[in-house]
Design a protein that fits this description.
By secondary structure, this protein is mainly beta. Helices cover 4% and strands 29% of the residues. It has one helix and eleven strands, in the order E-E-E-E-E-E-H-E-E-E-E-E. It has one helix at 63-69, and strands at residues 8-10, 25-28, 33-35, 40-44, 48-50, 55-60, 71-73, 78-80, 89-94, 101-103, 108-116. A four-stranded antiparallel beta sheet has the order 2-11-6-8, with no helix packed on it. A three-stranded antiparallel beta sheet has the order 4-9-7. The chain has a two-stranded antiparallel sheet with strand order 1-5.
């Protein structure tokens, strides 16, 4: 179990976890609007936070909104740096092709996940060390529930379904 991290905040609505053990704290809308099919809207939450140095917060979609209504976040995850003090806003997108989606004041529209983020330094080298994955890009791990394999169930290696030099 990790130690709690104090995050200072201002606004009307306390970001809250719906259940014990939840990673994301719910963010709510401070405005009412209708998202037409294919439309996006930058929704205010009224929330401002002060993260400790070495932490970042990530604004991510709510799975229920995505699965039931096709509502997602355009720039997911949205990154909130420790030095940012402005209002957290959520760029919602209605991916449903025919149904508008109505947002009311107080509706839960996104989740905020706070995580430690180490400061990194980038070191230029002439060659990178080998890894199991290698240069396998998009789709290189195959399909299906068995890990590696194509849709027919044939087992393949990590680079078998990606041509050299491409990201399929």
């Amino acid at each position: 179990m990790t130690e709690p991290v104090d995050v200072l905040w201002t606004g009307e609505n306390t970001p809250g976890h719906a259940h014990p053990g939840d990673a994301g704290a719910d963010l709510v809308s401070t405005e009412a609007f209708v998202l037409q099919p294919g439309e996006r809207h930058l929704a205010g939450t009224g929330l401002r936070i002060a993260l400790p140095e070495g932490y970042a917060a990530f604004v991510v979609p709510r799975s229920g909104l995505a699965a039931k209504h096709g509502i997602t976040i355009v720039n997911s995850p949205g990154t909130v740096d420790s030095g940012y003090r402005g209002e957290i806003k959520v760029s919602l997108l209605n991916t449903d092709r025919s149904e508008p989606y109505e947002v009311h004041v107080g509706d839960r529209i996104a989740q905020l996940i706070v995580m430690p983020v180490p400061r990194v330094t980038f070191s230029r080298v002439d060659e990178l060390p080998d890894s199991v994955r290698g240069q396998g890009g998009f789709g290189s791990s195959g399909y299906g529930s068995s890990g590696y394999g194509d849709r027919s169930g044939a087992v393949t290696g990590p680079a078998d379904d990606v041509q050299e030099g491409t990201h399929a």
